[in-house]
Write a structure and sequence with these properties.
Belongs to the AIR synthase family. With 175 residues, the protein is an alpha+beta fold. 32% of the residues lie in helices and 21% in strands. 35% of the residues are buried. The mean pLDDT is 95.
């Protein structure tokens, strides 16, 4: 599985973010947030990255099993929708660091990692599920297109240890 970086919150989780940062913490949109390097309002207005041309380029370059656009419901739940019932996707949190906006919402809202992961994309906007022999091609195509991408995890047979369509494992390097 190849992750494509999100540009920010995208279109998911704004109710949670508004509740935590604006209502609960009382922050204003013009508040300068050091971790963001800009105001809260500017961070919240970051345009959503659109992956359609990137995905089309990948389908022309190599074999792709599936794409998962990470929207409301979080990374694991969205990816589980494209994984066949007999398989399980293992997503390694140690392969990336969530953007500061996700860390800020978790910290200010005193939210556990699993709780915030159920709502926000955590910095992964799209996932390409590819055969192992396509990994290098996918990463190369995405790099050429200016899309930050990385190997996110793998797919294994579903068993007692690997139940459900997808799950996050390990810890983020910094969160």
């Amino acid at each position: 599985m190849i992750a494509m970086a999100a540009s920010g919150l995208h279109s998911n989780g704004y109710s949670l973010v508004r509740h935590v940062l604006l209502n609960q913490a009382g922050w204003k949109l013009d508040r300068k947030v050091e971790e963001f390097g800009r105001t809260l309002g500017e961070e919240l207005l970051e345009p959503t990255r659109i992956y359609s041309l990137d995905c089309l380029a990948l389908t022309r370059a190599t074999e792709i099993h599936a794409f998962s656009h990470v929207t409301g419901g979080g990374l694991a739940a969205n990816l589980a929708r494209v994984i066949p019932d007999h398989l399980h996707a293992r997503l390694d949190r140690g392969t990336w660091t969530p953007l500061p906006v996700f860390q800020t919402v978790a910290k200010v809202g005193a939210m556990q990692t699993l709780e915030i992961e159920k709502t926000l994309n955590m910095g992964v906007g799209m996932v390409a599920v590819v055969p192992p022999e396509s990994v290098d091609v996918v990463l190369s195509v995405l790099e050429d297109r200016g899309v930050e991408a990385w190997l996110l995890g793998d797919v294994v047979d579903r068993d007692a240890e690997h139940d459900g369509g997808a799950a996050l494992y390990n810890a983020y390097e910094a969160f």
